[in-house]
Write a structure and sequence with these properties.
With about 80 residues, the protein is mostly helical. The chain has one domain (about 5-80): Serine Threonine Protein Phosphatase 5, Tetratricopeptide repeat, CATH 1.25.40. The chain is built from 4 helices and no strands. The mean pLDDT is about 85.
Amino acid sequence: MSLMDMEPDNEKIYFNLGMLSMDDKKYEEAKVWFDKAIEVVIDLFLNLLLIVEFAVVLLISRYGLQIHENQLSENLESSE
């Protein structure tokens, strides 16, 4: 079993394979590995955003938090 099979969401594996391909002057192969590393990072980021969104919805539903547009705009104006 390869490391990629054991940790398919580890972008460092794909990045390092890209670097090894660059060392061997296999630039097209390196691009494929770097693209895969970017894809993994984007997927991880999107999953994190979904978790944050779920947490916010849970907080709002549990505690009845409400943000009114005027409160939001006041906060934005005061931070400028």
